[in-house]
Amino acid sequence: MKKIKRILKSKFFLFAALLLVFFYVNNSSLFVKREAGAPYLLAHRGLAQTFTMENIANDTCTAERIYPPEHPYLENTIPSMEAAFQAGADSVELDIKPTKDGQFAVFHDWTLDCRTPAAGKTSDYTMAQLKELDIGYGYTPDHGKTYPFRGKGTGLMPSLGEVLKLFPDRSFLIHIKSNDAAEGKQLADFLSVRPKEQVERLTVYGGDEPIDALKAELPGIRVMSLATMKSCLIPYIAAGWTGYIPSACERTQLHIPEKIAPWLWGWPDKFLNRMDEANTRVIVVGGDGSDFSSGFDSPEDVKRLPSGYSGGIWTNRIDRIAPLYGK
């Protein structure tokens, strides 16, 4: 009996050891070759003014807390997008809000009060009226002592149509700034008449409801929401050690906080290769996920990434980051 127990015990430990070896080999990047190349650089709102993230909330007026300006560009404008692409961005993120006359303005805030001299929402104004506003009006680096962009932002709020017309061959990440399904349907109607090859270069993210509505109308478009992220990552975390890739991980985009990324099976190279096979783009953002606007904005930030990292990087300072990769 003792001999049988010893045999069973030894077989159990052998099985456990083999299972651990399988875990390691199947999820280690040490045995993975990944095509050499620079990371995919995503410029948040183009080349924009940056600000302190301390005690920031969804309704914080970030224009009132910018750092002393180092360049003349304002977020979500045509010049800022041009500068970002010229600096080496592979894609630019922009925010859209509906207007009174059925268009989409490229603008970040819930209301106009923070950046402009106007009040209310974009939906209270036509696109032509929004063009008359000075979007540089509210920017201050010194608590209201000076306003370096006041008087310089009139006419700079673009429509989404203008952006796509001026940059027909570029990649964009479009952010629907609400959880209104009607906005997803409106965007689907707008994109349905755009050239197919242009739409294929776009990714749209936002609230679950508008993203569901958009995807229902345009099944082929790349989208991301909290729901799509969960439907991909939760089953992957549960079974990804086997190499299993959930169908929800196919043709989507994943924004992975840097502090969570190391817990994903196969991180970094094997995980990135698996997502490549699923035609899914992986973008690493800064921090722990409490604020997805946090990015890699300095050479010191980039040092926190794995050596030789070649996935996507979210940055608020494309002018600083692109040169590090020869872009």
From TrEMBL:
Query: Recorded GO terms, molecular function?
Result: phosphoric diester hydrolase activity
Q: Which Pfam families match?
A: GDPD (PF03009)
Q: Which residues cross the membrane?
A: none
Q: Which InterPro entries match?
A: GP_PDE_dom, PLC-like_Pdiesterase_TIM-brl
Kindly state a single biological-process term from the GO annotations of this entry.
lipid metabolic process
CDD domains for this protein = GDPD_GDE4_like_1
Q: Which residues form the GP-PDE domain?
A: 59-325
What name does this protein carry? Glycerophosphodiester phosphodiesterase
